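The instructor's notes for this session suggest beginning with a concrete chain rather than abstract definitions. Hand out the sequence below and ask the class to guess, before any prediction is shown, which regions might be ordered.
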Amino acid sequence: MDKLSYTSEGNTSAWSTYLQQIDRVTSYLGNLSRWIDTLRHPKRTLIVDIPLQMDNGTIRHFEGYRVQHNLSRGPGKGGIRYHPKVDLNEVMALSAWMTIKCAAVNLPYGGAKGGIRVDPFQLSEGELERLTRRYTSEIGIIIGPQKDIPAPDVGTNSKVMAWMMDTYSMNLGNTVTGVVTGKPIHLGGSLGREKATGRGVFITGCEVAHRENIKIQNAKIAIQGFGNVGSEVARLFNQAGAKIVIIQDHTATLYHKKGINIKELIIWQQKNKNISGFPGATSIDRESFWTTDMDILIPAALEGQITKKRAEIISCKLILEGANGPTYTDADDVLATRGITVVPDVICNAGGVTVSYFEWVQDMASFFWSEDEINKRSDKIMIEAMNNVWKKAKEQKCSLRTAAYIVACERILMARKDRGIYPG
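After discussion, reveal the predicted structure:
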């Protein structure tokens, strides 16, 4: 995902947004609501100090985190984020959303997340490697292929995952490829992993668009964020006949009424590391992104982007949450009142963790699948999960977000209830 800057909405934090979402689903859970406080408390939180010798010989200290929110359904699963605004509150929320996400698509995982408060773009490759290896050693006491499996997130990539895997393996004395996912293919990574999240957004988006009678052909689409997720979802929708009229990353907001040439923009972005200066579109001011005429909006950057104020002026019919937690709770209410359908993050962007699951399974078996097989398996899981959520929303007469939380919470709390409390 893109390294777009954070947006705050008053004193609302990511964790409080998550708690509000849990509060909204409690009344739908019947007898299982007795266990709801399980989801309001992270199971385990680790804060670590990371001393780093810089290239110039000075020593700097960075703060790192790993939060395991819930492990009732299996080992923890969740990314590692390198960003200057990372804090415990955010990591807690992201770990909780991973708990909900894994349960919503019925993967045998709990939720976890990690991060370091650092701007990775200000470090040399050597400094980044040393930071990653020290962080991995510090959190090594709670991660493992049957405990908690990290993956890439904002500011990290397959190279960082290779360093993490190697560090964990060296500390154990044998190679453990399944300790992380999102690795390079030649180190036990899975085909299709980098494009999986964007593909999942496209698959769920098409399913809901069809149900809402929104035609993809010539649909006007706005995308915020142009990293792995934003670029892939742009490519797939463009390939399906949609027009990507506006794209925003941390450097620029590009607009073209007849649609941006996505192939050319991807080439430009790969060469320049951002979209600024792309000659095939007009650069406009940042807030104009939200007032552009659009049919489908895809936030694929960071959390907290759709505020109540922005929800009041967005012109789209459908929002596909490619990012985690991009919509504030009060903004959700405004969107619902305006009849704008939101496909929530915990379903919409679950393609990434689904293929991460496939990678973990392949590592465990030392048997690897073709990309075509992976895409077919992933599409099937995403469509089935979307169908279950849609059905639940119609049954309960609620939003897709609430429906996704009902489905997920029922699975998590049933596992919690049947496992019981030990020691009693």
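Then share the key points. Residues 371-396 form the longest helix (26 residues). Confidence is low (pLDDT under 50) at residues 1-11.
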